[in-house]
């Protein structure tokens, strides 16, 4: 491209009926460089927080397998990546000076010849999203840990997963993955993350609750050392400690480690054990058996079973059955389809535990119901049913 002179620039401004006095005196003359092909560059729009991450030298990671939509993760957040088209061509000009920089430097007030190194008609837009954590449990449930004596563990052909493996397979940030491993009570065995087989977990919990009972310890102060001493001959000590961590809160008193047992979580686990062997259970019979099955001093309440079991008030007599939120689909629409397939009309109280985890940041259950369900009144009670026919 021929280099423009100041006279040519001024003539162009005159033709365009622009007053030079209203413009900065510096002029960028653009020309395409030899390598200015489109498509080699990708633009990513970052919010200030993510920009600060990169400027501080931390990494952002793109995660997803071939059949999944890509997500971008910082250390503690997950973002959906979507391509946004622009109506204006975006040009990449190395060393391009902004008006602010030119204003500060009066000496640069002349013609600046700049080469365009590339261009783009779109950019990647990031939108904060829920981490996709359902797969984490699914992977670990392929091969649950049945205890040190299990023959299955010696012969299993299933993959086992380290933290590194999970980081490459799960579409979530490292902190979200580590937090979820805690939520699902996973534990590290020989360097691999495992979930305990439910029957084995119940066996361990039973050992602990029987010991608490026989020693008459208060549920708020169960001593770790004594548990390991007494039960170490029955099960590995790290498994005893894991079950105490899963079903209790650790605290140190006078240099000794104690656990305050979570009554609700223990009652919930025992309910699951009772319910998983029956398709439906007479509600009043279940409540009686359940209360008899929990450790001395604990009180069972139906609200301990939110997201685990559902009461059918329309059947005579009333029944209860197992319905675990973690077994439902992760996608919003699929989740609602699945719930409306199980029950046609839901009250807000009943459906809330099954959709609470779908709420995005600052989103309420009410907003989700407005979007995916329609409401009506049934015997003076507001109920929700599907917006679309359920096949």
Structure commentary:
With 391 residues, the protein is an alpha+beta fold. It has 4 domains: 6-128, no CATH class; 133-195, no CATH class; 198-261; 328-390, Arc Repressor Mutant, subunit A. Helix content is 36%, strand content 23%. It is built from 15 helices and 17 strands. It has helices at 6-15, 48-55, 99-104, 134-141, 151-155, 163-169, 174-183, 198-215, 224-231, 237-247, 263-275, 283-293, 332-342, 348-355, 365-372; strands at 27-32, 61-63, 71-73, 78-92, 111-116, 118-128, 187-189, 192-194, 222-223, 248-253, 256-261, 281-282, 309-312, 319-322, 346-347, 373-378, 381-386. The strands form 6 sheets. Strands 2-3-4-6 form a 4-stranded antiparallel sheet, with helices on one face. Helix 8 (198-215) packs across helix 10 (237-247) and helix 8 (198-215) crosses helix 11. The mean pLDDT is 90.
């Amino acid at each position: 491209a021929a280099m423009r002179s100041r006279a040519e620039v001024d003539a162009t401004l005159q033709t365009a009926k622009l007053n030079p006095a209203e413009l900065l005196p510096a002029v960028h003359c653009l020309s395409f460089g030899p390598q200015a092909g489109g498509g080699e560059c990708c633009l990513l729009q970052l919010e200030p927080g993510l920009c600060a991450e990169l400027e501080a030298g931390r990494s952002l990671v793109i995660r997803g397998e071939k059949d999944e939509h890509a997500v971008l993760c910082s250390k503690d957040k997950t973002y959906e990546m979507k391509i946004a088209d622009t109506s204006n061509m975006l040009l990449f000009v190395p060393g391009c000076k902004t008006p602010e920089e030119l204003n500060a430097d009066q000496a640069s007030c002349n013609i600046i010849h700049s080469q365009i190194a590339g261009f783009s008609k779109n950019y990647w837009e990031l939108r904060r999203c829920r981490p996709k954590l359902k797969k984490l449990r699914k992977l670990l449930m392929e091969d649950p840990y049945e205890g040190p004596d299990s023959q299955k563990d010696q012969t299993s052909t299933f993959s086992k997963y380290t933290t590194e493996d999970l980081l490459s397979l799960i579409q979530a940030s490292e902190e979200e993955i580590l937090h979820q491993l805690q939520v699902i009570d996973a534990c590290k065995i020989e360097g691999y993350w495992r979930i305990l087989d439910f029957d084995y977990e119940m066996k361990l919990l039973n050992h602990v609750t029987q010991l608490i009972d026989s020693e008459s310890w208060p549920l708020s102060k169960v001593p770790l050392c004594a548990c390991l001493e007494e039960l170490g001959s029955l099960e590995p000590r790290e498994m005893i400690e894991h079950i105490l961590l899963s079903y209790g809160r650790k605290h140190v008193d006078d240099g000794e480690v104690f656990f305050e047992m979570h009554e609700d979580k223990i009652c919930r686990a025992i309910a699951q054990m009772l319910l998983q062997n029956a398709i439906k259970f007479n509600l009043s019979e279940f409540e009686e058996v359940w209360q008899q099955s929990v450790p001395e001093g604990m009180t069972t309440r139906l609200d301990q079973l939110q997201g685990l079991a559902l009461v059918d008030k329309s059947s005579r007599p009333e029944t209860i059955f197992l319905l675990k939120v973690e077994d439902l689909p992760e996608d919003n629409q699929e989740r609602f389809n699945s719930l409306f397939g199980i029950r046609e009309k839901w009250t807000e109280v009943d459906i809330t535990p099954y959709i609470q985890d779908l709420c995005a940041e600052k989103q309420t259950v009410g907003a989700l119901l407005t979007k995916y369900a329609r409401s009506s009144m049934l015997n003076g009670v507001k109920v929700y049913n599907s917006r679309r026919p359920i096949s």
